[in-house]
Amino acid sequence: MSGSDSISASYNALACPLEKGETLHLLLDEHDLLDSGWRPMRRGETLLLPLRLGVVPEQFEVLENLSFEVIFSQEEFEKAEPSNNPHAALQRGIERWLHVNFASEELGALISQRPHKWERLGDLIVLPEQAFASSEWAKLLNQCSETQLESLWRCVTEALSGGRLARQHSIAKDTFRSSQTELLLGDNGWVEFLDHGVRFGFDATQVMFSSGNNTERRRIGNISMNGEVVVDAYAGVGYYALHMAHRSQAMLVHAFEMNPHSIEGLQWAIEANGLKDKIIVHQGDNQQLLPLIYGQADRCHLGLLPSTERVWGHAIQCLKPSGGWLHIHMNVQEKDIENWKEETLEELRNLAEAHERNWSIESQHLEKVKWFSPRVRHVVLDVYCQSRDA
């Protein structure tokens, strides 16, 4: 990345090689840095992408590990077509709603504080927790009648081409880490959709589903597991278990989950994807249930955030005596990733020795899935364990 460490407000564009344009466009859009109200522009073999105003320098940390150079610049862009731009449609809709219901109010700040990102689960649009939650919006919405509120939520839903609307809230601090997603428009939170050819179904007001892990679900599903027995220690609604059984062609997946709402979705998806003979669901505390699979698995997937360390010992013992694979998810400070990797490998070696496994344990790959928060990465460490006695 070139340019000052402190991103000047005069910069409104990011330039990259044309062949890297799609990669950069997706990254900027995912991290709410792209201003889709303007049309990207080609200049020779360079693509120029418009940046959203108001972003802070820390947000550009997502560009630090790109494999190609990007350059900040100042450009004049053409307006994007409103019909193809949900951000513009949302702004127009909110402006109309505000002028109809609160014509005398100061509206500029409210319009600028509209949502700039959202998730789509089937026909359900899920807004982030901060959407319409600023002090200005909170004050205004407290004055609204139920009819006015419903008209706002309908306006937002229609602008984003959805059928229902919800807003995320912090994960509940209960045993199940339950979703507290609030349904704003619609009768229920059940959603059904395709994810890389795999059918999912669950109640989004009861369980979490991170669309931001899309690349990791694709990656895991692209790994051949033909003939393997796999343990998914934190299956949820089948985020990874379904992909491993369906796309990776695992022979059998042992899916461990304790949240009954997640299991409802997982069981639905097992039936919908024709995987009844390939996934066994173990309902309950994996600390108690994982010993049932000791010595049987070729691969263990450990997908809970922020950490899965509490089951590393179980995972070691679930693998066959000859060894196998571990996929370890973790939230790690960007500056600490290499140290964390080496410390994790050392801890796994100690656990293997404690459980009388004479193994060579090495890292085969470290995947940086996404930014979890400023300076904190969601990473996955692929570890291969191999018996020295073979």
Report on this model:
- This protein is an alpha/beta fold and 390 residues long.
- The protein folds into three domains: 13-80, Alpha-Beta Plaits, CATH 3.30.70.2580; 83-185, GMP Synthetase, Chain A, domain 3 (2-Layer Sandwich), CATH 3.30.300; 208-387, Vaccinia Virus protein VP39 (Rossmann fold), CATH 3.40.50.150.
- It contains eleven helices and 17 strands.
- The protein has helices at residues 21-30, 86-101, 108-112, 135-141, 146-159, 214-222, 241-246, 260-272, 286-289, 312-318, 337-354, and strands at residues 13-17, 41-43, 46-50, 71-73, 119-121, 124-127, 164-167, 182-185, 190-195, 198-203, 229-232, 252-257, 279-283, 299-302, 323-333, 359-373, 376-387.
- The chain starts with 12 loop residues before the first strand and ends with a strand.
- Mean pLDDT is 89; it is low at 1-9.
What's the topology here?
Layout (H helix, E strand, L loop, with lengths): L12 E5 L3 H10 L10 E3 L2 E5 L20 E3 L12 H16 L6 H5 L6 E3 L2 E4 L7 H7 L4 H14 L4 E4 L14 E4 L4 E6 L2 E6 L10 H9 L6 E4 L8 H6 L5 E6 L2 H13 L6 E5 L2 H4 L9 E4 L9 H7 L4 E11 L3 H18 L4 E15 L2 E12 L3
Helix pairs in contact: 2-5
